[in-house]
Amino acid sequence: MITDTIIKINQLNKTYHTELGKQIKAIENFNLDININNFICIVGPSGCGKSTLLRIIAGLDSASSGLVSFQGQAISKPSRDIGMVFQEYSLLPWRTVIDNVSLGLEFNRLAKQERLEVAGSFLKMVGLEDYAKAYPYELSGGMQQRVAIARALANNPQVLLMDEPFGALDAHTRILMQKELLSIWEKNMKTIVFVTHSVDEAIYLADTIIVMSSHPGGVKEVINVNMSRPRDRANPIYAQLASQILLMLEEEVTKVK
Amino acid sequence: MSKNVTNVCIMIILPVVFINIWFYLAKSINNTVILPSPAMVLQLLSHPSENLISMGSLTNNIFVSLLRVLAGYLLAVILAIPLGILMGYYAKMFILFNTFVGIFRPIPPLAWVPLVLAWFGISSFATFTGVERGILFIYLNNLKFSMVFIIFIGAFYPVLTSAIYGVKNVKKTLIDSARVLGASESDIFFKILIPAAEPSIVNGMRIGLGVAWMCLVSAEMLPGSLSGIGYLITHAYTIARTDVVIAGMICIGVVGALMDMFFRIFEDKKFKWQRLIR
């Protein structure tokens, strides 16, 4: 099968300098090719550099060395082609839902009428068209994240980065949101890179799971999830995969101690 | 309705007690220079447009004072808000200005008086603009540079501090998410930083106006001042008209409280989102 690489990460290193002058290697020699229209989940122990990696791909942080490229072009600053959804609620509290969704379109100088049409259609896609005139504080956490997803998608990015977007939600809402995200992904096939703590979430969502090693962060294992969708959590393969990944993570956590 | 009535009742308890004590004390002291009775003061306040001690009326003097405060205050706002936003956002700007500005902050506006007089004397906006007669001259001549400067100093720091604080406290995620959506640097300023910091900035403007108004009496004690509510008070004191002093003080209090109230109403309306996200 021929696949197109959309994001290429080549020998990426990221070193931080602490205020005391110490150097901390957050990411070391990270290599990864991300294929177009794939759903990638990155799991790893906390502090392994998952979020840093995502921020570098988004162009919000720069690499210390190595290359991260999008469609062959090195990424040096944020671009419309790569969208991002954050764990923390990132909606502008003084704007209505519809005005939040059209924010990216506003930055790209689209005419107002067009903005409202595009934003409206994406709001409909996440099932919140009735809340267009509401303010973020009137919405539940899950609804706010749906608006954030609609806002990212309205910009028509080629790649959607998601940094533990459901981390702050309760277990039940989280499962509903996972289902919804998959249906959105199936509807408008984008490449998704999804960072999560939850092994269960990764197996439910991903085509490919990247297990990260920690201190410094690198690729420990690449696992292809060969299960048909929608995935059944009762499937023995599901449980087997989960225990396999949990074991790897445990190794990484104990390694530090 | 009953809740409002109860609230009004609670609200007027202390003023009523206060005025009664005042009545009683004024009666027992029986010396209008030390403490005039509330009735005397009320008499003055109920005829605000009457000429007092050949110094003009209360309303006229308040108007002159307001004009001065507004001039100094506007100047402070115009300078402090952009500076505060830049200092809040750019770490280098903060380092550049903070120590310098910080040294001037603890100096009370009144301590500037000698220097300000040496610099500006009794020159006014009339001197500056070259207007020498007419109504405009009267108003411009009342805007002494030295007074405007003192008021400016008073209002500047609260506005600056809250602008810095407001911008520094904008959630980083808001800025990052805007960047990822393709925001330019000016989009970040005008569509993220300023609206997010606006409640804090407006709050600083409210406090700044209060301080500016409080600096008024000291500013109007400066030489060259021939009107204004602060001047009325100090002049009334020299001729032992304590009732005029108290009437003037009440005017300062009421006008200051009204300005504060308008600001609060505006804040409540405009920044509903801020109260509700907590």
Question: How do you describe this structure in short?
Answer:
With 257 residues, chain A is an alpha/beta fold.
Write the layout of secondary structure elements.
The complex is a heterodimer of chains A (257) and B (278).
Chain A: E1 5-17, E2 23-35, E3 39-43, H1 50-58, E4 65-70, E5 73-74, E6 82-85, H2 97-101, H3 103-107, H4 112-125, H5 141-154, E7 159-163, H6 171-187, E8 191-196, H7 199-205, E9 208-213, E10 218-224, H8 236-256
Parallel strand pairs in A: 3-8, 3-9, 6-7, 7-8
Antiparallel strand pairs in A: 1-2, 1-4, 4-5, 9-10
Helix pairs in contact in A: 4-5, 7-8
Chain B: H1 2-29, H2 38-45, H3 58-89, H4 91-104, H5 113-120, H6 125-129, H7 134-142, H8 145-168, H9 172-180, H10 185-220, H11 229-238, H12 242-270, H13 272-276
Helix pairs in contact in B: 2-12, 3-4, 3-8, 3-10, 5-8, 8-10, 9-10, 10-11, 10-12, 11-12
Description:
Chain A has 257 residues and is an alpha/beta fold. Chain A contains eight helices and ten strands. Chain A has helices spanning 50-58, 97-101, 103-107, 112-125, 141-154, 171-187, 199-205, 236-256, and strands at 5-17, 23-35, 39-43, 65-70, 73-74, 82-85, 159-163, 191-196, 208-213, 218-224. In chain A, the strands form two sheets. In chain A, strands 6-7-8-3-9-10 form a six-stranded mixed sheet, sandwiched between helices. In chain A, strands 2-1-4-5 form a four-stranded antiparallel sheet, covered by helices on one side. In chain A, β7 (159-163), α6 and β8 form a beta-alpha-beta unit. Chain A is globular, with a radius of gyration of 19 Å. In chain A, 41% of the residues are buried. Chain B is mostly helical. The two termini of chain B are 28 Å apart. The chains are: A alpha/beta (257), B mainly alpha (278). The A-B interface holds A 55, 58-60, 78-80, 82-84, 86, 88-90, 92-94, 103-104, 106-108, 135-137, 148, 151-152, 155 and B 171, 173-174, 176-184, 187, 191-192, 195-196, 198, 271, 273-274, 276-277.
